[in-house]
Amino acid sequence: MNRNPKKKKKSLIIKLSLILVILISGTLCYGFYQYKKGIQISQQKANKKNIKFNSTKVPNKTNILLLGEDARKKGGSSRTDSIMILQYDKKHETKLVSIMRDSYVPIPGYGKHKINAAYSFGGVELLRQTIQKNFGIEIEYYAIIDFKGFEEMIDEIAPKGITINVEKPMESNIGVSLKPGVQQLNGKELLGYARFRHDAKGDFDRVVRQQKVLQAIKSQVLTIKGIASLPKTLGVIQSYIQTNMSSMDLLKISSDYIVKGKDKDVETLRIPINNAFTPKRNEKAREVLELDAEKNKEALELFLN
């Protein structure tokens, strides 16, 4: 005698549900294991600092200050080799702003200097104040990584390298020699590519390359293989960066982005914008970019807000 079709269907649903629960549980456990493994890989390689930072939450948006730190001089103050603002919002749009380090702006308590001097004078908090004062942008999080940390982080998350189309020969003052063409760059090579500035447009082209590097890293991490190893990647990254983002912050933003926003391009902007700055030499005979404050502030606010 045949079993009741309703009972068969109910039994099948129960079995499928159990299989789904087992798969989800296994995935979560494996993800946690990978995350802890990532932390263990490099937790001794980065010295964490006690950093003052008065963060401000922007409704429906997440603003993150990304800094590349040049800390090669022992005993001296560190400089910021790159200054970026990464914004992620509830619509799952990602925007990236690069602020050129030669931008000549008022720094609270210090008068006018290149904007990267704010980090040397008073760390990430003074830089946050400087950005807020000049551009009206509030920052919730910061993430700082130095040269060595960047190299090691890239080698950990992409052992075969990051794919980059190197547009010209590069070797001046970057510690490596790069030939033109599409290739896989390891951590040291990728850093050299991002820092190269000895061409016709100097820092302007370097900003373009830095944005290109972040796009390439994003593409690498968001491959099927990259997503599978994301928990481990987040663990590795946390050990190389100084940040006020918690583990849960990183996991939430990363997972949310993968599910709802990974296929969207990152919009980019450079400050100063075209036709809103004048190259000059200041009183110390250093080349600076004198900004049209209102034009750049308006452009940045329109882009982010």
CATH superfamily: LCP protein
Shape: globular
Mean pLDDT level: 81
Distance between the termini: 69 Å
| CATH architectural type | 3-Layer(aba) Sandwich
User: How many E strands?
Assistant: 12
- Give the biggest beta sheet: 6 strands, mixed
As a percent range, the share of strand residues is 15-25%
Radius of gyration, in angstroms, nearest whole number = 23 Å
Number of domains: 1
Q: Number of helix segments?
A: 9
In terms of structural class, how would the helical and strand content be classed?
alpha/beta
Name of the CATH class: Alpha Beta
Q: Write down the secondary-structure element order.
A: HEEEEEHEHEEHHHHEHEEEH
Indicate the low-confidence ranges by residue numbers: 24-28
Describe the structure.
The chain is of the alpha/beta class and 305 residues long. It has one domain: Aminopeptidase, CATH 3.40.630.190. It is built from nine helices and twelve strands. The strands form three sheets. A six-stranded mixed β-sheet has the order 9-6-1-2-3-10, with helices on both faces. A four-stranded mixed β-sheet has the order 5-4-12-11. A two-stranded antiparallel sheet has the order 7-8. α1 runs parallel beside α7 and α3 crosses α4. The longest helix is centred in the N-terminal third of the chain and has 38 residues. It starts with a helix and ends with a helix. About 2% of the residues have low confidence.
